[in-house]
Design brief:
- By secondary structure, the chain is α/β, with parallel strands linked by helices.
- 17% of the residues lie in helices and 30% in strands.
- It is built from seven helices and 27 strands.
- The strands form eight sheets. Strands 15-12-16-20-19-17 form a six-stranded mixed beta sheet, sandwiched between helices.
- Helix 3 packs parallel to helix 6.
- The longest helix is centred in the C-terminal third of the chain and has 19 residues.
- It starts with 9 loop residues before the first helix and ends with a strand.
- The protein binds adenosine monophosphate and magnesium ion.
- The site of adenosine monophosphate has 17 residues, from helix 3.
Length: 403
Protein backbone atom coordinates (compact mmCIF):
# COMPACT_ATOMS: atom_id res chain seq x y z
CA UNK A 1 0.00 0.00 0.00
CA UNK A 2 1.46 3.39 -0.88
CA UNK A 3 1.58 5.86 1.97
CA UNK A 4 -1.53 8.02 1.46
CA UNK A 5 -1.19 11.43 3.10
CA UNK A 6 -4.12 12.86 5.06
CA UNK A 7 -6.38 15.01 2.86
CA UNK A 8 -6.22 18.76 3.31
CA UNK A 9 -9.44 20.49 4.41
CA UNK A 10 -11.61 22.45 1.99
CA UNK A 11 -10.92 25.68 3.86
CA UNK A 12 -7.15 25.19 3.94
CA UNK A 13 -7.06 24.35 0.25
CA UNK A 14 -9.18 27.34 -0.58
CA UNK A 15 -6.71 29.57 1.29
CA UNK A 16 -3.82 27.93 -0.54
CA UNK A 17 -5.33 28.58 -3.99
CA UNK A 18 -6.31 32.07 -2.87
CA UNK A 19 -2.70 32.88 -2.03
CA UNK A 20 -1.49 31.70 -5.45
CA UNK A 21 -3.17 34.26 -7.67
CA UNK A 22 -1.83 37.81 -7.32
CA UNK A 23 -4.00 40.93 -7.58
CA UNK A 24 -4.28 42.19 -11.14
CA UNK A 25 -2.88 45.68 -11.78
CA UNK A 26 -5.05 48.79 -11.81
CA UNK A 27 -5.25 50.09 -15.35
CA UNK A 28 -7.51 52.55 -17.22
CA UNK A 29 -10.15 50.88 -19.37
CA UNK A 30 -12.94 52.36 -21.54
CA UNK A 31 -16.28 52.32 -19.73
CA UNK A 32 -17.75 49.64 -21.99
CA UNK A 33 -15.04 47.26 -20.80
CA UNK A 34 -15.57 48.00 -17.12
CA UNK A 35 -18.84 46.17 -16.47
CA UNK A 36 -18.51 44.02 -13.36
CA UNK A 37 -14.92 45.13 -12.66
CA UNK A 38 -13.73 46.81 -9.48
CA UNK A 39 -12.84 50.50 -9.41
CA UNK A 40 -9.16 50.96 -8.56
CA UNK A 41 -9.24 54.58 -7.32
CA UNK A 42 -11.82 57.02 -6.00
CA UNK A 43 -13.73 58.84 -8.73
CA UNK A 44 -13.88 62.59 -8.11
CA UNK A 45 -16.46 64.47 -10.16
CA UNK A 46 -14.82 66.98 -12.54
CA UNK A 47 -18.19 68.72 -13.03
CA UNK A 48 -21.37 69.24 -11.09
CA UNK A 49 -24.57 67.41 -11.98
CA UNK A 50 -26.59 69.01 -13.28
CA UNK A 51 -23.80 71.22 -14.65
CA UNK A 52 -26.24 74.16 -15.04
CA UNK A 53 -29.75 75.09 -13.84
CA UNK A 54 -32.11 73.44 -16.30
CA UNK A 55 -35.76 72.85 -16.89
CA UNK A 56 -37.43 69.69 -15.59
CA UNK A 57 -40.42 70.24 -17.91
CA UNK A 58 -41.38 71.36 -21.37
CA UNK A 59 -42.98 74.75 -20.77
CA UNK A 60 -42.11 78.40 -20.21
CA UNK A 61 -39.34 80.01 -18.17
CA UNK A 62 -40.78 82.96 -16.25
CA UNK A 63 -40.25 85.21 -13.27
CA UNK A 64 -42.50 83.82 -10.57
CA UNK A 65 -43.68 87.35 -9.73
CA UNK A 66 -44.96 87.77 -13.31
CA UNK A 67 -47.29 84.77 -12.99
CA UNK A 68 -48.18 85.20 -9.31
CA UNK A 69 -51.88 85.76 -9.96
CA UNK A 70 -52.34 83.33 -12.83
CA UNK A 71 -55.09 80.79 -12.38
CA UNK A 72 -56.47 82.54 -9.33
CA UNK A 73 -59.30 85.03 -9.17
CA UNK A 74 -57.44 87.35 -11.55
CA UNK A 75 -57.68 84.81 -14.42
CA UNK A 76 -54.84 83.83 -16.76
CA UNK A 77 -51.74 85.92 -17.44
CA UNK A 78 -50.53 86.69 -20.97
CA UNK A 79 -46.81 87.15 -21.66
CA UNK A 80 -44.88 87.73 -24.89
CA UNK A 81 -42.59 84.80 -25.78
CA UNK A 82 -39.20 86.41 -26.32
CA UNK A 83 -37.04 83.33 -26.93
CA UNK A 84 -37.24 79.65 -27.72
CA UNK A 85 -34.77 77.47 -25.80
CA UNK A 86 -34.50 73.88 -27.00
CA UNK A 87 -32.22 71.44 -25.18
CA UNK A 88 -28.66 71.97 -26.35
CA UNK A 89 -28.92 75.72 -26.92
CA UNK A 90 -25.62 77.09 -25.66
CA UNK A 91 -25.93 80.88 -25.92
CA UNK A 92 -27.24 82.69 -22.88
CA UNK A 93 -30.08 85.18 -23.31
CA UNK A 94 -31.43 86.70 -20.07
CA UNK A 95 -35.18 86.79 -19.46
CA UNK A 96 -36.51 90.33 -19.33
CA UNK A 97 -39.25 91.16 -16.79
CA UNK A 98 -42.76 90.72 -18.17
CA UNK A 99 -41.70 88.14 -20.80
CA UNK A 100 -41.51 84.36 -21.06
CA UNK A 101 -39.09 82.02 -22.86
CA UNK A 102 -40.44 78.80 -24.31
CA UNK A 103 -38.18 76.09 -22.89
CA UNK A 104 -37.74 72.33 -23.29
CA UNK A 105 -36.76 69.69 -20.73
CA UNK A 106 -33.02 69.79 -20.10
CA UNK A 107 -32.55 73.26 -21.62
CA UNK A 108 -30.72 75.92 -19.58
CA UNK A 109 -32.95 78.16 -17.47
CA UNK A 110 -32.17 81.74 -18.62
CA UNK A 111 -30.76 84.21 -16.09
CA UNK A 112 -33.63 86.24 -14.67
CA UNK A 113 -36.10 83.34 -14.72
CA UNK A 114 -36.77 81.58 -11.42
CA UNK A 115 -39.57 79.16 -12.34
CA UNK A 116 -40.92 76.99 -15.12
CA UNK A 117 -44.62 76.81 -15.97
CA UNK A 118 -45.29 73.47 -17.61
CA UNK A 119 -46.82 73.54 -21.07
CA UNK A 120 -49.97 71.80 -19.82
CA UNK A 121 -50.76 74.93 -17.75
CA UNK A 122 -50.60 77.19 -20.83
CA UNK A 123 -52.09 77.50 -24.31
CA UNK A 124 -48.67 76.54 -25.81
CA UNK A 125 -48.40 79.91 -27.58
CA UNK A 126 -45.32 80.67 -29.67
CA UNK A 127 -45.46 84.49 -29.80
CA UNK A 128 -47.81 85.15 -26.93
CA UNK A 129 -48.48 82.64 -24.20
CA UNK A 130 -51.51 82.41 -21.94
CA UNK A 131 -50.51 81.07 -18.55
CA UNK A 132 -53.20 79.51 -16.37
CA UNK A 133 -51.23 78.61 -13.23
CA UNK A 134 -48.87 80.39 -10.89
CA UNK A 135 -45.38 78.99 -10.19
CA UNK A 136 -43.52 79.52 -6.92
CA UNK A 137 -39.78 80.30 -7.21
CA UNK A 138 -37.84 77.13 -8.11
CA UNK A 139 -40.79 75.29 -9.63
CA UNK A 140 -39.56 72.63 -12.13
CA UNK A 141 -36.00 73.97 -12.01
CA UNK A 142 -33.27 71.36 -11.62
CA UNK A 143 -30.51 73.15 -9.75
CA UNK A 144 -26.79 73.02 -10.55
CA UNK A 145 -25.12 70.44 -8.33
CA UNK A 146 -28.37 69.06 -6.95
CA UNK A 147 -27.15 65.54 -7.72
CA UNK A 148 -23.36 65.89 -7.62
CA UNK A 149 -21.12 68.77 -6.54
CA UNK A 150 -17.96 69.30 -8.57
CA UNK A 151 -14.99 67.88 -6.63
CA UNK A 152 -17.09 65.40 -4.66
CA UNK A 153 -16.08 61.75 -4.50
CA UNK A 154 -18.89 59.97 -6.31
CA UNK A 155 -17.52 56.41 -6.38
CA UNK A 156 -15.12 54.86 -3.89
CA UNK A 157 -12.20 52.62 -4.84
CA UNK A 158 -13.40 49.06 -4.42
CA UNK A 159 -16.83 49.68 -5.89
CA UNK A 160 -18.05 46.97 -8.26
CA UNK A 161 -19.00 48.76 -11.47
CA UNK A 162 -22.53 47.97 -12.55
CA UNK A 163 -24.71 49.90 -14.96
CA UNK A 164 -25.67 52.75 -12.57
CA UNK A 165 -22.04 53.38 -11.61
CA UNK A 166 -20.91 53.37 -15.25
CA UNK A 167 -23.74 55.70 -16.19
CA UNK A 168 -22.64 58.07 -13.44
CA UNK A 169 -19.01 57.97 -14.60
CA UNK A 170 -20.14 58.89 -18.11
CA UNK A 171 -22.42 61.63 -16.76
CA UNK A 172 -19.49 63.36 -15.05
CA UNK A 173 -17.57 63.22 -18.31
CA UNK A 174 -15.32 60.19 -17.96
CA UNK A 175 -14.55 57.94 -20.94
CA UNK A 176 -12.34 55.57 -18.95
CA UNK A 177 -11.99 54.40 -15.37
CA UNK A 178 -9.05 52.91 -13.48
CA UNK A 179 -10.01 49.32 -12.72
CA UNK A 180 -8.34 46.11 -11.68
CA UNK A 181 -8.06 44.52 -15.08
CA UNK A 182 -9.70 41.16 -15.79
CA UNK A 183 -7.74 38.16 -14.65
CA UNK A 184 -6.37 36.18 -17.64
CA UNK A 185 -6.82 32.45 -17.40
CA UNK A 186 -5.34 29.80 -19.67
CA UNK A 187 -7.71 26.85 -19.68
CA UNK A 188 -6.42 23.52 -20.83
CA UNK A 189 -8.30 20.24 -21.14
CA UNK A 190 -6.42 16.98 -21.17
CA UNK A 191 -7.62 13.57 -22.22
CA UNK A 192 -6.96 11.45 -25.30
CA UNK A 193 -10.66 10.50 -25.34
CA UNK A 194 -11.82 14.09 -25.93
CA UNK A 195 -13.10 15.21 -29.32
CA UNK A 196 -14.62 18.37 -30.64
CA UNK A 197 -18.27 18.94 -31.40
CA UNK A 198 -19.34 17.99 -34.90
CA UNK A 199 -17.05 14.98 -35.06
CA UNK A 200 -18.98 11.67 -34.81
CA UNK A 201 -18.02 9.83 -31.64
CA UNK A 202 -16.07 6.63 -32.02
CA UNK A 203 -16.31 4.05 -29.26
CA UNK A 204 -14.44 5.34 -26.23
CA UNK A 205 -14.58 9.00 -27.24
CA UNK A 206 -16.56 11.81 -25.62
CA UNK A 207 -17.13 15.44 -26.48
CA UNK A 208 -14.87 17.82 -24.61
CA UNK A 209 -16.91 19.96 -22.23
CA UNK A 210 -14.78 21.06 -19.29
CA UNK A 211 -13.01 23.86 -21.11
CA UNK A 212 -16.33 25.32 -22.21
CA UNK A 213 -17.75 25.18 -18.70
CA UNK A 214 -14.61 26.56 -17.07
CA UNK A 215 -14.12 29.35 -19.59
CA UNK A 216 -17.74 30.39 -19.11
CA UNK A 217 -17.27 30.34 -15.33
CA UNK A 218 -14.22 32.60 -15.63
CA UNK A 219 -16.04 34.98 -17.95
CA UNK A 220 -19.09 35.07 -15.69
CA UNK A 221 -16.96 36.73 -13.03
CA UNK A 222 -15.34 39.15 -15.48
CA UNK A 223 -12.17 37.24 -16.36
CA UNK A 224 -10.63 36.62 -19.78
CA UNK A 225 -9.76 33.23 -21.18
CA UNK A 226 -7.51 31.49 -23.63
CA UNK A 227 -8.62 27.92 -24.22
CA UNK A 228 -6.50 24.96 -25.32
CA UNK A 229 -8.65 21.87 -25.81
CA UNK A 230 -7.90 18.30 -26.81
CA UNK A 231 -4.47 18.01 -25.20
CA UNK A 232 -3.70 14.29 -25.35
CA UNK A 233 -2.46 12.26 -22.39
CA UNK A 234 1.12 12.78 -23.39
CA UNK A 235 3.61 14.71 -21.26
CA UNK A 236 5.59 16.09 -24.17
CA UNK A 237 2.45 17.23 -25.97
CA UNK A 238 1.31 18.89 -22.74
CA UNK A 239 4.53 20.87 -22.38
CA UNK A 240 4.55 21.75 -26.07
CA UNK A 241 1.00 23.05 -25.75
CA UNK A 242 1.61 25.38 -22.83
CA UNK A 243 5.00 26.65 -24.01
CA UNK A 244 4.58 30.16 -25.31
CA UNK A 245 1.53 30.91 -23.17
CA UNK A 246 3.18 30.97 -19.75
CA UNK A 247 4.04 34.68 -19.86
CA UNK A 248 0.69 35.91 -21.18
CA UNK A 249 -1.66 34.78 -18.43
CA UNK A 250 -2.22 35.13 -14.70
CA UNK A 251 -3.22 31.54 -14.03
CA UNK A 252 -3.23 28.15 -15.75
CA UNK A 253 -6.29 26.00 -15.07
CA UNK A 254 -6.11 22.41 -16.30
CA UNK A 255 -8.66 19.64 -16.15
CA UNK A 256 -8.08 15.91 -16.06
CA UNK A 257 -5.00 13.82 -15.49
CA UNK A 258 -4.49 14.35 -11.77
CA UNK A 259 -5.82 11.24 -10.06
CA UNK A 260 -4.20 7.98 -9.08
CA UNK A 261 -4.39 6.01 -12.35
CA UNK A 262 -1.84 5.53 -15.09
CA UNK A 263 -1.57 8.18 -17.86
CA UNK A 264 -2.16 11.07 -15.45
CA UNK A 265 -0.66 13.57 -17.83
CA UNK A 266 -0.94 16.72 -15.74
CA UNK A 267 0.49 15.04 -12.68
CA UNK A 268 3.29 13.49 -14.70
CA UNK A 269 4.11 16.76 -16.46
CA UNK A 270 4.08 19.04 -13.44
CA UNK A 271 5.13 16.89 -10.46
CA UNK A 272 8.42 18.14 -9.08
CA UNK A 273 8.07 21.32 -11.14
CA UNK A 274 6.56 23.50 -8.43
CA UNK A 275 3.08 21.97 -8.46
CA UNK A 276 1.90 19.84 -5.53
CA UNK A 277 -0.62 17.07 -6.06
CA UNK A 278 -2.73 16.20 -3.07
CA UNK A 279 -6.17 15.16 -1.89
CA UNK A 280 -8.75 17.56 -0.54
CA UNK A 281 -11.34 16.30 1.95
CA UNK A 282 -14.21 17.05 -0.41
CA UNK A 283 -16.66 15.12 -2.53
CA UNK A 284 -16.62 15.45 -5.45
CA UNK A 285 -13.22 16.80 -6.46
CA UNK A 286 -10.78 15.09 -4.08
CA UNK A 287 -7.68 14.92 -6.31
CA UNK A 288 -6.25 18.38 -6.83
CA UNK A 289 -3.01 20.06 -7.69
CA UNK A 290 -1.72 23.58 -7.35
CA UNK A 291 1.46 25.56 -7.28
CA UNK A 292 3.62 27.61 -9.53
CA UNK A 293 5.17 26.39 -12.78
CA UNK A 294 7.90 28.64 -14.21
CA UNK A 295 6.40 31.49 -12.18
CA UNK A 296 2.86 30.88 -13.44
CA UNK A 297 0.19 30.00 -10.86
CA UNK A 298 -1.31 26.65 -11.78
CA UNK A 299 -4.45 24.98 -10.48
CA UNK A 300 -5.08 21.50 -11.82
CA UNK A 301 -8.65 20.26 -11.55
CA UNK A 302 -9.90 16.70 -11.80
CA UNK A 303 -11.48 15.72 -15.10
CA UNK A 304 -14.95 14.62 -14.15
CA UNK A 305 -17.14 17.51 -15.26
CA UNK A 306 -18.93 18.11 -11.97
CA UNK A 307 -15.67 17.74 -10.04
CA UNK A 308 -14.03 20.30 -12.29
CA UNK A 309 -16.99 22.66 -11.98
CA UNK A 310 -17.21 22.33 -8.21
CA UNK A 311 -13.48 22.71 -7.73
CA UNK A 312 -13.62 25.92 -9.73
CA UNK A 313 -16.57 27.06 -7.64
CA UNK A 314 -14.95 26.30 -4.30
CA UNK A 315 -11.32 27.20 -4.88
CA UNK A 316 -10.76 29.23 -8.04
CA UNK A 317 -13.83 31.44 -8.13
CA UNK A 318 -13.03 33.14 -4.80
CA UNK A 319 -9.34 33.36 -5.70
CA UNK A 320 -10.00 35.02 -9.07
CA UNK A 321 -12.62 37.38 -7.65
CA UNK A 322 -10.20 38.47 -4.92
CA UNK A 323 -7.44 38.95 -7.53
CA UNK A 324 -9.75 41.34 -9.37
CA UNK A 325 -10.32 43.34 -6.18
CA UNK A 326 -13.69 41.95 -5.12
CA UNK A 327 -14.36 41.76 -1.40
CA UNK A 328 -17.57 39.77 -1.75
CA UNK A 329 -16.15 36.48 -3.02
CA UNK A 330 -18.57 33.98 -1.50
CA UNK A 331 -21.89 32.78 -2.79
CA UNK A 332 -24.85 33.73 -0.64
CA UNK A 333 -25.71 31.03 1.88
CA UNK A 334 -29.05 30.14 3.32
CA UNK A 335 -30.67 27.44 5.41
CA UNK A 336 -33.30 25.20 3.85
CA UNK A 337 -35.01 21.92 4.64
CA UNK A 338 -33.87 18.98 2.56
CA UNK A 339 -36.76 17.37 0.69
CA UNK A 340 -34.97 14.01 0.68
CA UNK A 341 -32.53 11.93 2.69
CA UNK A 342 -28.87 12.40 1.74
CA UNK A 343 -25.84 10.27 2.52
CA UNK A 344 -22.33 11.63 2.63
CA UNK A 345 -18.92 10.02 3.24
CA UNK A 346 -17.35 10.60 6.65
CA UNK A 347 -14.48 13.05 7.04
CA UNK A 348 -15.22 14.71 3.71
CA UNK A 349 -17.30 17.76 2.99
CA UNK A 350 -19.86 16.89 0.38
CA UNK A 351 -21.44 19.29 -2.07
CA UNK A 352 -24.64 17.96 -3.58
CA UNK A 353 -26.50 19.66 -6.36
CA UNK A 354 -29.91 20.98 -5.45
CA UNK A 355 -32.79 23.18 -6.42
CA UNK A 356 -33.86 25.57 -3.71
CA UNK A 357 -37.23 27.27 -3.65
CA UNK A 358 -38.20 29.22 -0.57
CA UNK A 359 -37.03 27.26 2.44
CA UNK A 360 -37.02 23.83 0.80
CA UNK A 361 -34.18 22.33 -1.19
CA UNK A 362 -34.64 19.35 -3.50
CA UNK A 363 -31.49 17.35 -4.20
CA UNK A 364 -30.97 17.02 -7.96
CA UNK A 365 -29.31 13.78 -9.06
CA UNK A 366 -26.99 11.66 -6.98
CA UNK A 367 -23.48 12.34 -5.72
CA UNK A 368 -21.78 11.09 -8.93
CA UNK A 369 -19.26 13.55 -10.35
CA UNK A 370 -20.18 12.74 -13.95
CA UNK A 371 -23.82 13.87 -13.60
CA UNK A 372 -23.54 17.08 -15.56
CA UNK A 373 -27.22 17.29 -16.53
CA UNK A 374 -28.21 17.25 -12.86
CA UNK A 375 -25.74 20.06 -12.20
CA UNK A 376 -27.18 22.03 -15.11
CA UNK A 377 -30.67 21.59 -13.64
CA UNK A 378 -29.66 22.83 -10.18
CA UNK A 379 -29.56 26.32 -8.72
CA UNK A 380 -27.62 25.64 -5.55
CA UNK A 381 -25.16 23.40 -3.79
CA UNK A 382 -26.09 21.59 -0.60
CA UNK A 383 -23.14 21.60 1.79
CA UNK A 384 -22.91 18.50 3.97
CA UNK A 385 -20.27 19.01 6.67
CA UNK A 386 -17.37 16.62 7.23
CA UNK A 387 -18.86 15.14 10.40
CA UNK A 388 -22.33 14.46 8.96
CA UNK A 389 -23.04 11.17 7.22
CA UNK A 390 -26.82 11.28 6.99
CA UNK A 391 -29.21 14.14 6.37
CA UNK A 392 -32.76 13.05 7.09
CA UNK A 393 -35.66 14.34 5.03
CA UNK A 394 -36.74 17.63 6.57
CA UNK A 395 -33.37 18.38 8.19
CA UNK A 396 -32.04 21.92 7.89
CA UNK A 397 -29.05 22.13 5.56
CA UNK A 398 -26.75 24.90 4.36
CA UNK A 399 -27.24 25.87 0.75
CA UNK A 400 -24.91 27.93 -1.47
CA UNK A 401 -27.01 29.83 -3.97
CA UNK A 402 -25.51 29.71 -7.46
CA UNK A 403 -27.74 32.12 -9.34
P1 LIG B 1 -9.49 12.22 -15.50
O1 LIG B 1 -9.48 13.15 -14.35
O2 LIG B 1 -8.60 12.68 -16.61
O3 LIG B 1 -9.17 10.82 -15.06
O4 LIG B 1 -10.96 12.21 -16.08
C1 LIG B 1 -12.03 11.79 -15.29
C2 LIG B 1 -13.27 11.64 -16.14
O5 LIG B 1 -13.64 12.89 -16.65
C3 LIG B 1 -13.10 10.73 -17.34
O6 LIG B 1 -14.32 10.02 -17.49
C4 LIG B 1 -12.89 11.69 -18.46
O7 LIG B 1 -13.27 11.16 -19.71
C5 LIG B 1 -13.74 12.86 -18.08
N1 LIG B 1 -13.20 14.10 -18.62
C6 LIG B 1 -11.93 14.52 -18.43
N2 LIG B 1 -11.73 15.69 -19.06
C7 LIG B 1 -12.91 16.01 -19.65
C8 LIG B 1 -13.31 17.11 -20.45
N3 LIG B 1 -12.48 18.09 -20.75
N4 LIG B 1 -14.59 17.13 -20.90
C9 LIG B 1 -15.43 16.12 -20.58
N5 LIG B 1 -15.10 15.07 -19.82
C10 LIG B 1 -13.84 14.99 -19.36
MG1 LIG C 1 -7.96 12.06 -18.33
Amino acid sequence: MPDVPKPISVDDYRARVGALVAATPVTPLPLDQCVGLVLGADLVAPVSLPPFDNSAMDGYAVRSVDVAGAGGTGGPVELPVAEDIPAGRTDVVPLLPGTAHRIMTGAPVPPGADAIVKVEDTDGGVELVTIRASAAPGTHVRRTGEDVTEGATVLRAGTVLGSPQLGLAAAVGRAELPVRRPVRALILSTGSELVEPGVPLRPGQIYESNSVLLAAAVREIGGETTVLRFVPDDVRAFHRTIAGHVDDVDVLITSGGVSAGAYEVVKDALSGQGVDFLRVAVQPGGPQGSGSFQGLPVVTLPGNPVSAALSFELFLRPALLAAMGHTVIDRPRLKARSAAELRSPSARRQYRRGYVEGDVVNPVGGPGSHLLAAFAASNCLIEVPEDVEVIAEGDLVTVLVLD
